[in-house]
Design a protein that fits this description.
Layout lengths: L8 E3 L16 E11 L3 E8 L2 E7 L5 E7 L7 E8 L3 E7 L2 E6 L5 E6 L7 E7 L8 E3 L2 E5 L1 E8 L8 E10 L1 E5 L2 E6 L2 E9 L2 E4 L11 E5 L2 E5 L5 E5 L10 E5 L6 E7 L2 E6 L3 E6 L7 E7 L6 E5 L2 E6 L2 E9 L5 E4 L4 E3 L5 E5 L9 E9 L9 E7 L3 E3 L12 E9 L11 E5 L8 E7 L4 E6 L6 E9 L7 E2 L10 E4 L8 E9 L11 E3 L14 E5 L2 E5 L8 E9 L7 E2 L9 E4 L8 E9 L11 E3 L11 E8 L2 E7 L6 E9 L6 E2 L9 E4 L7 E9 L11 E3 L15 H13 L4 E8 L8 E8 L5 E5 L7 E8 L5 E9 L1
Parallel strand pairs: 31-37
Antiparallel strand pairs: 1-2, 2-29, 3-4, 4-5, 5-6, 7-8, 8-9, 9-10, 11-12, 12-13, 13-14, 15-16, 16-17, 17-18, 19-20, 20-21, 21-22, 23-24, 24-25, 25-26, 27-28, 28-29, 30-32, 32-35, 33-34, 33-36, 36-37, 38-39, 39-42, 40-41, 40-43, 43-44, 45-46, 46-49, 47-48, 47-50, 50-51, 52-53, 53-56, 54-55, ...
Length: about 800
């Protein structure tokens, strides 16, 4: 068994290098614990493959259990799975997806456990042996198991079948290591190499008998390192294992305890003593091994495995993970520099941190300030710790101007290892004003100027003052009411636009010392404020145009407005007007009827500052332009009808004309239900009386023109008689002919109830369609004289009022 634990601090000589751990010249190193997992009862052995540690431990009843532990994060170890095995264990090793456990008690032999599923390791076959194993080594696909009086060699390790013995060496065997074709057996009296390159044939090599016993052996390269009990560490040349007598290269026996086990990593040998001591030996030169450190681990160590930067220990009921940690380098790049003058009693101290371990970082810093170089308790005036590479001396340190102070610092890394103290530097606080600010720049705004400058590096800086003047030679007055303690910028407000101003800046320290002025810069504020955004925009749609109106914006320096339009609610908007609009209305023309447009307005002042666009309004132009009044209307009377003619209107969207008639020249009614497409029209069904006419034009959008001039006419009547009260037969015939002359008339049978009057053989009835126009018809009452049936020329689409005109009896 060659696995153990140690904690130590040392200064390592130059040139010592180990795989996984690189010892740096003159660097303080110590072993620090970075992770631990408990609950393993009696841990026996550990090995690591990739980021998984396999630990075998025995419970109080002597039953073995394999624990599979995730060690990818050493400070957060997690058990992935466990598997129990019958009997107690003494060692383990890994081959492929199997862990092999050497079982010494209960059921001696070799137990195979599948770890293909690390969360559910499964015990597999068990190779029974009559003797209890003492150790286990897997090399070259074979298992080497020493059992005291012989050494078994087994194969069939990769599959689920039982391991098979493929060779046996009969001879004392307590421990074993394998290098190439040779197995090196440690036993009482020394070391015995045997050739196993031609199994089952095993050939003995030479021997080494320079020590009483070999409790552990580790072979690497041309050397075998023997843990030789009370004889310490023996190093044997095994470059020719067949040599009869193997030469001893060196022996080291300056140990307080017997050496029980050995583990070699490159040029460093780790030795475990019987009482738990750990010894670290430099074997860079095997002929001259050097003991460089030793320590008491405090616990018996059953197993150790070294991989990369970590040392894994099976000890007691725990798996512990350690790493060799180098203390940080001595701090360098100290500031303030030695013998410096500082302009404050609260200076900032800083130093450079570096560490031999890649990825290590500063976790703490200790700072000391003293009045003497010895840093005695009496000399130290202030000390503090923080976790940064700089430190601001607080006012409570009560440093005094004109007094020289000495300071130093040391750093600690993430594992708590401290560097040595830095060099001792001195500084003296002096009460001087800060340097004048530089880089002053001015940017003019609206009635204000924005100033910026470079910060002053004085450690006791309190802030800045800004001064302004109306002339370069002054006088200058302070622009800030209180010290500008934060930042390196300031805005001077309340200025007059168009006036040139001059500006300077000074720095002030904590004691009120003010620096010289910075360079002078000039700036002229300008009106950059746009007018208010117009509101309450309205849009009135017309034929191919939209009229926009809005209330005036109240800015005193208003120049006018701009109008924008878009065919989408969200834009893009394009300016419509070519020049500034002075009023509060605007007509956007040359638009397409039926298309929805969106309009917005901005306000512009005399300096060209433009407001944002107001909320957009929508409008769709429509044809609302009426045709012109028809011209040249003439009328010609006919028999119960008139003929109207007029001059054609020129509008391209003309739909036609409507004819209106009246009997009194005041109340007119529309004569035709549909517009007349031509320039003439005949009104029929009229009476022999005076009628009045005018016409209107209508376009395709339904817009009506104004009325034409009014014309009048009396339709002709072909019925002639001398006495209207004594009509003759010819008159009745003439009446019938008149009815026939009324174009479009229909014969309608009308039944009329007459007022009470006897003896009226003939009745004349007048009728008026819808109260307009006039016609007459005649008939004879029935025998009772109170009812009259007549036939009159009327029109089915008109309403008629009938009036009794006369009767003759």
């Amino acid at each position: 068994m060659r696995r153990f634990k140690f904690i130590l601090v040392l200064i390592v000589a130059a040139g010592i290098v180990s795989s996984g751990f690189s010892f740096k010249a003159e660097a303080a190193v110590e072993l620090v614990e970075v992770g631990s997992y408990s609950g393993l009862t009696n841990a026996v052995d550990v090995t690591v493959n990739d980021s998984v540690a396999y630990v075998v431990y025995n419970d109080p009843a002597g039953q073995a259990t394999l624990a599979v532990i995730d060690v990818s994060q050493p400070d957060a170890l997690v058990v992935k799975g466990r598997a129990a095995a019958a009997g107690s264990s003494v060692a383990l090793d890994v081959y492929g997806n199997y862990v092999f456990i050497a079982m010494a008690g209960g059921n001696p032999g070799l137990q195979k456990v599948s770890v293909a599923d690390q969360q559910n390791p499964l015990p597999g076959t068990h190779k029974d042996l009559s003797e209890a194993p003492r150790d286990l080594k897997i090399a070259n696909g074979l298992a080497y198991v020493p059992v005291g009086d012989k050494l078994y060699i087994m194969d069939h390790l990769a599959g689920p079948e039982f391991p098979q013995i493929v060779g046996t060496y009969y001879g004392a065997a307590e421990t074993v290591d394998v290098e190439g074709d040779w197995a090196f057996i440690g036993r009482e009296g020394g070391l015995k190499p045997v050739n196993v390159g031609d199994l089952p044939n095993i050939t003995e090599g030479g021997a080494y008998g320079g020590c009483n016993q070999v409790r552990d052996v580790y072979v690497t390269g041309n050397y075998a390192y023997l843990a030789a009990g009370s004889d310490g560490l023996h190093i044997v040349d095994v470059s020719n294992p067949g040599r009869i007598s193997l030469p001893k290269i060196a022996a080291l026996n300056s140990f307080e305890q017997d050496i029980e086990s050995v583990f070699v990593v490159s040029n460093m040998a780790y030795l475990a003593g019987t009482g738990g001591n750990l010894y670290v030996v430099n074997v860079n030169n095997p002929a001259s091994p050097q003991l460089i450190m030793s320590c008491d681990t405090g616990n018996a160590i059953a197993g150790l495995y070294v991989k990369d930067d970590y040392i894994y220990l099976a000890s007691g009921d725990k798996l512990k993970i350690y790493t060799l940690n180098y203390a940080p380098n001595t701090p360098d790049n100290l500031s303030p520099s030695n013998n410096a003058s500082v302009e404050t009693t609260t200076p900032v101290l800083s130093a450079g941190f570096s560490d031999p371990d890649e990825g290590d970082y500063l976790s703490a810093a200790e700072w000391q300030i003293a009045t003497g170089l010895a840093f005695t308790a009496e000399e130290i005036v202030y000390s503090a710790t923080n976790n940064a590479a700089f430190f601001t001396v607080p006012a409570e340190a009560k440093l005094a101007y004109g007094t020289t102070y000495y300071w130093r610092v040391r750093f600690s890394d993430r594992y708590g290892s401290w560097s040595g103290w830095s060099e001792t530097f001195s500084f003296t606080p002096v009460d001087l004003p800060p340097a004048a600010p530089t880089g002053l720049a001015a940017a003019a705004g609206d009635a204000q100027v924005d100033l910026t400058w470079n910060g002053v590096s004085a450690q006791d800086l309190a802030g800045y003052n800004v001064y302004r003047a109306a002339a370069s030679e002054g006088p200058y007055e302070k622009a800030n009411e209180s010290l500008i303690a934060q930042g390196t910028s300031f805005t001077v407000t309340g200025l007059t636009n168009g006036t040139t101003y001059y500006f300077r800046v000074t720095a002030v320290d904590n004691n009120g010392n003010e620096s010289a002025s910075s360079e002078t810069v000039t700036a002229t504020p300008q009106d950059l404020t746009p007018p208010a955004v117009p509101t309450n925009l309205t849009a009135e749609a017309h034929d191919k145009e939209v009229v926009l109106r809005w209330p005036a914006v109240g800015d005193e320096d208003l120049a006018g407005y701009n109008v924008f339009r878009s065919e989408q609610p969200g834009g893009p908007f394009q300016k419509v007007n070519e020049s500034i609009i002075n009023g509060c209305s605007y007509t956007v023309s040359e638009l397409a009827n039926g298309t929805t447009y969106y309009f917005a307005v901005t306000a512009v002042d005399v300096r060209g500052n433009e407001s944002g666009r107001c909320e957009a309004v929508a409008a769709a132009p429509v044809d609302d332009r009426a045709p012109g009044a028809p011209q040249g209307l003439t009328v010609s009377p006919g028999v119960y009808k008139v003929f109207l003619e007029w001059v054609t209107n020129t509008e391209p969207d003309l739909a036609g004309y409507y004819i209106y008639l009246s009997t009194d020249g005041i109340s007119f009614a529309q004569s035709n239900p549909e517009p007349v497409a031509g320039t003439s029209y005949t009104v029929t069904g009229l009476a022999h009386r005076c009628y009045y006419f005018y016409i209107k034009a209508v376009d395709q959008a339904g817009n009506y023109s104004p009325a034409s001039q009014v014309v009048e006419a009396i339709p002709q009547n072909r019925r002639h008689h001398s006495d209207p009260h004594t009509p003759s037969q010819s008159e009745e015939e003439q009446q019938e002919q008149d009815v026939k002359d009324k174009e479009g008339a229909l014969d309608e049978q009308l039944l009329i109830t007459l007022p009470e009057r006897a003896g009226a053989p003939l009745v004349q009835v007048g009728y008026m369609p819808s109260g307009e126009g006039f016609g007459m018809c005649f008939g004879l009452p029935d025998e009772s004289g109170s009812r009259l049936a007549l036939t009159c020329p009327v029109f089915s689409w008109q309403l008629f009022n009938f009036h009794l005109l006369d009767w003759w009896g």
